[in-house]
Inverse folding.
């Protein structure tokens, strides 16, 4: 099951000389399924001040920068009523990572863990979920605070954040807590 | 921009006689983009006690039923370390709804609001995000509490829930709060 796949995508990546898809020592990839099961529309773009991974804040609460969520005007009517929400869940697509890793060694932790124990962009479906504070909506553009993604990231969804179901203040991720937060 | 599309998918739906895609009075659909932008793998299935929409709890905190998240064994190594988390974010695919609605009239609210002000399954990318309590992991199966989805729902992702970035206890959705919670 383990071992690097020889997919067309990876061959193309290698040809482009990208190295963000290289396996680090101890990382394990699996063979990807032979076909996809569903398809997505990019419904807009997220504009942030960060042009490279190195510039991005390490986590979404580290920056107070205002980011702009530019929804495709096609969907603008879908924002009606959202202005009454203080926070939103934003789903976006992080396609600049491998999708076949099951064990990863994130650089800033240096320990090997499973993909599903991490919030790493490298995962079978690279969908990020971020909570952002909604500052204002003007037409089809939202100003928000609390993102950490690259400029021009493709947007997948906007949802209202309900404290009653989305907030669990006493949740713990043991491996992370033991590091001292 | 508004108006019902004449897509192949809708024609097929009409032919099957499904009526959950019918527009309610006041609902508005837009023309879907001509093509998709990205593709997803179903990485497992969620097993719940609910076989129809009518049986599903109205929201995820309404039921204490234990649900099973059955990850495809291909990805099982990705769970390493997740057993230390008390809660997970589960992303799953709700493909039994229209994707072209921008204004909706949910039955249990009876008022028209934008798709992005609602958690309705009808949205351009029908990805649900739910917080669930992690009870145990055995092999490639997770037992969790706190889901409200149909049995056999396709799984897209499992992420650890970090209170530090995912929990906002004082978030408010105004239109919902004014209804009295």
């Amino acid at each position: 099951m383990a071992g690097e796949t020889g997919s067309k995508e990876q061959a193309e990546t290698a040809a482009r000389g990208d190295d963000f898809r290289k396996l680090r020592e101890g990382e394990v990839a699996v063979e990807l399924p032979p076909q996809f099961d569903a398809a997505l529309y990019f419904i807009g773009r997220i504009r942030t001040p960060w042009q490279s991974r190195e510039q991005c804040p390490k986590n979404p609460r580290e920056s107070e920068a205002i980011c702009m969520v530019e929804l495709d005007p096609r969907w603008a009517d879908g924002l009606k009523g959202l202005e009454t929400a203080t926070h939103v869940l934003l789903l976006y697509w992080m396609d600049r990572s491998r999708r076949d890793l099951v064990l990863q060694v994130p650089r800033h932790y240096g320990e090997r863990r499973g993909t599903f124990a991490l919030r790493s962009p490298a995962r079978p479906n690279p969908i990020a979920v971020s909570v952002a504070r909604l500052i204002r909506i003007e037409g089809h553009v939202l100003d928000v605070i609390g993102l950490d993604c690259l400029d021009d990231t493709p947007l997948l969804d906007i949802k209202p954040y309900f404290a009653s179901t989305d907030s669990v203040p006493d949740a713990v991720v043991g491996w992370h807590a033991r590091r001292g937060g």
Notes: Chain B is about 10% helix and 30% strand. Chain B touches chain A through 79 residues (CB under 8 Å). The longest strand of chain B covers residues 127-138.
